[in-house]
Design brief:
The protein is an alpha/beta fold. It has helices at 11-22, 34-42, 55-64, 80-98, 132-142, 169-180, 198-211, 228-239, 255-258, 267-273, 282-287, and strands at residues 2-6, 26-31, 46-49, 67-70, 104-110, 150-156, 159-161, 183-186, 192-197, 216-219, 223-227, 243-246. The strands form 3 sheets. Strands 3-2-1-4-5-6-10 form a 7-stranded parallel beta sheet, sandwiched between helices. It is globular and about 55 Å long. 48% of the residues are buried.
Amino acid sequence: MRIFVTGASGGIGSAVVEELVAHGHEALGLVRSAESAAKVEAAGGTAIRGGLGDLEILTKAAQETDGTIHLAFSNDFTDLPRSIAEEGLAMDTIGAALIGTDKPFSIVSGTTFAQGRPATEQDPIGTTGPVGGRGINAQRILDLSSQGVRTSAVRMPRSVHERYIAYGFAGMLINAARQSGVSAYVGDGTQRWPAVHRRDAAKLFRIMIEQGQPGTAVNAVSSEGDAMLELATIIGEQLGVPVQQVPAEVFGPLGMIFSIDQPATSSWTRDTYGWEPTHPTLIEDLKAGNYPA
């Protein structure tokens, strides 16, 4: 299959391109720069120059390939509404190009949370809070399953990681510790964050392109929940800085998210699609130390 991938040079996207190519697919990655194009090509893919705002390019690429994986997001947390609106328009454009084709369209989404238990794939995606707009975008795409698009949403946890490369939300704790000189946590630190290795996540994206049923949400979760205090303690030990409780506001608009207990399970995903994580856990990757700049 020829698969169009947005965000193909990013932390998850580059792993997805490698995973697709390794399993006999052709990956065409959307990139905005020569540097990003080189990353896609090094992973075995073919670069398509353009950005999320280039709607004609998105339409053409979606129409001329056998399926699409959407991963791109600006990650500008200083203006989340703008980033979310840009993502939504791009997703809607791709979706419109695929109506009636029965082609697969797999999008990145986020794990949700359920009071008093790990969130499951059947729990509705969150549509409130700082990033609630992304949940609204995702549900709109899943609803295209009734219009001849084989849509699926891969719900990613807060920390998508690979040692020496990326740590997701845990990476924000690392950066904050370097800048402030303390390894910070919010509240009593017992709140849990799910996690997944980026290569295990890439495998699930491939599975959903190949086998995903229309309108399906899956949880790309390896570790159901690591306590924020445990993460902060490991980071403090590795960086040689003290561990300290801080107000949620220290982390800006994401502080509220950091303070919520949000474990998630992937039992249904594993049972239904045979996905099994095989790579190191977030705790193992954090304990490896030598964090990149």
